[in-house]
Design brief:
This protein is an all-alpha fold. The chain contains twelve helices and no strands. The longest helix is centred in the last third of the chain and has 34 residues.
Length: about 250
């Protein structure tokens, strides 16, 4: 029972869970709800994308995520983590530029945006006191992408991405990317469709990237905040996830 779990959590940890729940709710604010509504319309535009592109979205997204992971990690020794607003400004500008060029521009922009998003997630891990270069933290960074994307409906009940832990082997990271890519591809396909019309696509690209970046920054804060709280308060991570889930369910009542 979630209530039994939360009663065993110390008061200061309860307060931190309240703060993390507030961050989770903030990720799905009014702007995101508007984008979700627009995303529903964008689904109809997916049929206008070239058939080869529609059929290859999953593979393309997997490649983009693999490349982004490699590039983001390699860039850490050259470019330090930036404040969240700089990452948001960068992806917003990328989205506008990509959308201005229509579908070809959006296809070029997508890997760059994915890399900046991943760097922003890594920055959230570093601010929580974790080493983004550690293999288990890299796993967690990819897991953040498994959160319901900005163009997907998320009522706070789907918290599975917070609790999954995989055995660390050489091939597991690629398997994780492969499992996350189909879900991410759906959101990215809607994004590409929204950006496929020049000029209007620039506005759609900028707005979508802005909300994407804010969303994943909040998800990273929640994800690594729970990891940090588990260590600092010596509370099993699953208990904290259950406590957060109870708070999100209470919000919906």
């Amino acid at each position: 029972m979630p209530n039994d779990v939360t009663q065993a959590i110390p008061v200061d940890a309860e307060a931190e869970l309240d703060r993390l729940a507030a961050r989770y709710r903030a990720a799905g604010g009014p702007g995101l709800r508007l984008l979700t509504a627009l995303g529903g319309r964008a689904e109809g535009l997916l049929d206008r994308l070239p058939p080869d592109l529609r059929g290859g979205l999953g593979v393309a997204t997997e490649r983009a995520l693999t490349l982004a992971m490699r590039t983001a990690q390699g860039s850490r020794g050259v470019i330090p983590d930036q404040p969240g607003w700089i990452d948001t400004a960068a992806t917003t500008a990328l989205g506008a530029a990509g959308g201005l060029g229509g579908l070809p521009g959006a296809l070029v922009e997508l890997p760059a945006t994915t890399t900046v998003l991943l760097r922003s997630i890594q920055g959230g891990a570093a601010r929580a006191g974790f080493d983004p270069g550690a293999e288990n933290v890299q796993f967690d960074c990819i897991r953040v992408f498994a959160a319901a994307g900005p163009l997907a409906h998320d009522d706070g009940a789907d918290l599975g991405f917070l609790s999954l832990r995989l055995t660390l082997t050489g091939a597991t990271l690629q398997k994780l990317i492969a499992s996350v890519s189909p879900r991410l591809a759906t959101a990215m396909g809607q994004k590409l469709a929204a950006q496929s019309v020049p000029l209007l696509g620039a506005v759609a690209g900028a707005g979508t990237n802005y909300l994407y970046t804010r969303y994943y920054q909040e998800m990273a804060h929640v994800h690594f905040g729970l990891r940090r709280l588990s260590i600092d308060a010596d509370i099993p991570h699953p208990e904290l996830v259950a406590g957060l889930a109870a708070r999100m369910r209470a919000t919906l009542r």
